[in-house]
Amino acid sequence: MGGEDGDGDRNWDFHLRTLSNSTRDSNLANNPASDPSLLHSVTPSLPPSLSVKRLHELCKEENSEDLIARVYPQINKLFQRSVSLLSQSTNSYGLLLLAILQFFLDFGEVVLHDADPSLRTFLRSCLSREFADPVVAEATLDFLNVNKKKILTSFPTLLPQFFPLLLKLIAWNGEKLEKSFMKIFPGLMMSPGSFLPLFPSLVDLPILVVALQKVERSSGSLIGSSIASIQKSTAPEMLLALMDEAYTGSTIADGGADSESEDSSAIDAADPFFLEFLKDENDGLPERHWTSPAMVATLQATINTPQSDRLKQMLKMTPRLLDVYFAISLRDVNDSLICALIPLLMSRNDTMFPDKIFSYEVRKRLLEFMLAAFQRSPNFIALLKKPIMDRLGEAYDSPAKTELALQLCWAIGEHGGGGGSHKDAARELFESLELLLYENLSTSRLGLRESALRSGGESSRKSSQSRLLCFVVTAIAKLASYHRELLPRARVSLGKVARSRISDVRVWRRARDYLGLMNEPAICLSVLGPSRPSDGNMQKPGTVNWSEGGTKMIAHIPFYILGEQEGPPFHDFSFSDIFPRR
């Protein structure tokens, strides 16, 4: 044992001298990352027999607070010196700093070192320059996963603050790091301050890839460049100067003979829209102007050119990230944040990267989450009546907005406009549905007279509008069945549609069927009522209050309309066979 202790002391002395020499030697002090003993100690493929990593292992093996206290000053000095030289060196410091950070996390309580400033310094000063390095990126995710529990517990705001930087890391490195990134992804949402800003950043991940590629084309490798140093400025001259200094070292006016095209110019990358994408830290909900000239030009160029492998990977990954985001939201996030998220979903439904498959997959998830949120909290419909009515007013602006309006109509009817306690909101929503209905009747948008003149595309558009109006008619009938004070107005509205032979046959036939159903109050609420009635006196859908049949039902109940069949009922029983005689 004594011999082993002696060997251990000699190992300690050797590694401490190595560290001490690295901080004193003028050459190594100016570039600690160039010291082979330091680099080897944190490179997994080489024997960890020297310096930082070996000292860390020895501290764990010996479990001696005295030895930890002896090595800490040298480790801390090395960290500070390395950070101070990041902007002056082309060497990679990521692996060395991660090894030091692991020492701080494991032994911080022993030496009273708060690791939070060190972690933030690493992310802000080092990872912002080296996120594009695949080795550093993978090591960073491994580090975060190994220490995930401690980071989320002791430093809960760290990942939420730097989620834009971590999104840049995964956007550039792609699917090969997806599994590791998914493990830390829930931690990005832990803070209320990151939950809402994270959503548009996820939807825009393909555009982030495009922005990073533009920077690489115009300024060279992303490794070693601090994109975050470019700050927004209200003065265009200052903005261009910052771009100049950060990327090219020359003036924008010099042009650049090797510029590939106008699309890859530094001027485009300096657009405030792209600066918003390229930031490293969360500073609140982003304001992104999709009418930006640079944005319009870039998207158009993207459509007209082959997609890069990075972009293809991100188009596939983004829907999977949204799946996790929405699942965690419904499980763990409070109602106030989810209610605030829904208008963002509505605004982004028609604004996203122009790839057909990507757009379909993302919109599908947005609408499914929105309906699930309404199902969980029907009162959201009343609270969000203004944005909902605005979207109904945009129903015919584009196919995506038509589909959104259709889903909103279904939610309004299905959940009674927010519930029985929200009669004013239900009335306003009802009026919006009425307006949408009357606009179509008055302008004859679905007029059969035009059918002979329709082209294929026009026919498809009319069919889509007919589908929407069927949902509008259904929502009006369901809303009036829940809020019975609206029944007279609903009968007038549906009566106009039923009598209008200029409308698509599916629309006026459905209106006629609902009018007939409204004349049967005992089954109307069962068929058209909300799925989760808040009023205890209301039955659930699919059930009929048979005890009231003697007074509220009549002999000619048109069951056949529920199957949209023409002609008389097909049953051969009478109600005297069903209801007991008194």
UniProtKB/TrEMBL annotation:
It holds the Pfam family SPG48. Residues 51-168 form the AP-5 complex subunit zeta-1 ARM repeats domain. InterPro entries: AP5Z1_ARM (IPR055450), TPR_AP5Z1_C (IPR056856). Residues 304-532 form the AP-5 complex subunit zeta-1 C-terminal TPR domain. Coiled coil: none annotated. This is AP-5 complex subunit zeta-1.
